[in-house]
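Q: What residues go here?
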């Protein structure tokens, strides 16, 4: 009986050993398959990265280089000069010049713009000290400005000087028609004074009576038209929001055809020559692709660039 028991035990051990060996063999095959799959996946990932233009490290380094290359410059627009630049009902900066600068920013290579809305005197000080690389404010080209700042060769807008009267008046259409009339007070500096004072210099025998008052609210000037205090308001179309004036006063006013047309330019601090060149290129693109015309129609209600060939500066 004992030999039979011993023999069965050996057979059982052999069968157990065979099972263990088979398990080890299957496990080794599984490990080999998984290792092969992992290797294939790694190769695929590297190939995918290469197909995109380089390794993951290369992409990361390129992104870091781009960030490092971009220089952030602070530029300024007028804080409350609708429709050029203003804060809209959503509490966001808006306006023609603001949107032009945003479009320029999208095209700039190597520069990011931080656009701030500030008071007019802060713009003047900031551009002179270099705090602002660029300022926007519907500026005309003058010899003094060309000497002091960099002006792009491409204008960012077109100023249309118009004569405004009550809707029923048709007797005031040109500067000649202002002789003998009461013109609303004007600022002693700026484009309106240059225009009217220049007219008087050329017409010594037929002068326009000028009254100067700094910072007279535009609404007060138009209110004076309704009361009969003034016959006409001389003002650039882009420098105020006619719709808001008419809504506030409950009246409609008539604007003449432009009596003077001036191109408008951004002012750039002279320390930023490369930036100025890139702004020039961006403005040329925006002009050619119709962006400036589209923004003009949106914010001014007309394509001011159709008058560009009449510009005196």
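A:
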């Amino acid at each position: 009986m004992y030999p039979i028991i011993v023999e069965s035990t050996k057979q059982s051990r052999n069968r157990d050993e065979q099972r263990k060996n088979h398990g080890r063999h299957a496990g080794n095959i599984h490990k080999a398959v998984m290792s092969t799959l992992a290797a294939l996946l790694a190769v695929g990932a590297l190939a995918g990265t290469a197909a995109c233009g380089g390794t993951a490290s290369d992409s990361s380094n390129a992104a870091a280089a781009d960030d490092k290359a971009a220089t952030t410059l602070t530029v300024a627009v007028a804080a409350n000069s609708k429709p050029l630049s203003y804060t809209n009902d959503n509490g966001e900066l808006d306006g023609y010049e603001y949107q032009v600068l945003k479009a320029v920013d999208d095209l700039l290579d190597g520069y990011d713009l931080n656009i701030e809305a500030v008071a007019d005197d802060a713009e003047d000080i900031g551009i002179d000290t270099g705090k602002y690389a660029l300022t926007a404010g519907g500026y005309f080209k003058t010899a003094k400005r060309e000497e002091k700042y960099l002006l792009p060769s491409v204008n960012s807008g077109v100023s249309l000087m118009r004569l405004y009267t009550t809707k029923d008046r048709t007797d005031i259409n040109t500067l000649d028609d202002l002789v003998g009339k009461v013109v609303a007070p004007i600022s002693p500096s700026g484009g309106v004074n240059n225009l009217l004072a220049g007219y008087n210099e050329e017409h010594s025998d037929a002068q326009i009576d000028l009254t100067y008052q700094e910072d007279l609210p535009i609404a007060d000037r138009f209110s004076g038209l309704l009361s009969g205090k003034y016959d006409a308001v001389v003002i650039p179309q882009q420098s105020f929001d006619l719709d808001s004036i008419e809504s506030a006063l409950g009246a409609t006013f008539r604007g003449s055809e432009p009596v003077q047309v001036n191109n408008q330019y951004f002012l750039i601090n002279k320390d930023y020559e490369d930036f100025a060149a890139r702004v020039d290129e961006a403005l040329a693109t925006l002009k050619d692709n119709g962006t400036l015309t589209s923004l003009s129609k949106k914010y001014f209600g007309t394509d001011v660039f159709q008058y560009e060939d009449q510009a005196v500066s």
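A: Context that may help when evaluating the design: The chain has three domains: 2-63, 68-158+264-310, 159-260. The longest helix spans residues 2-51.
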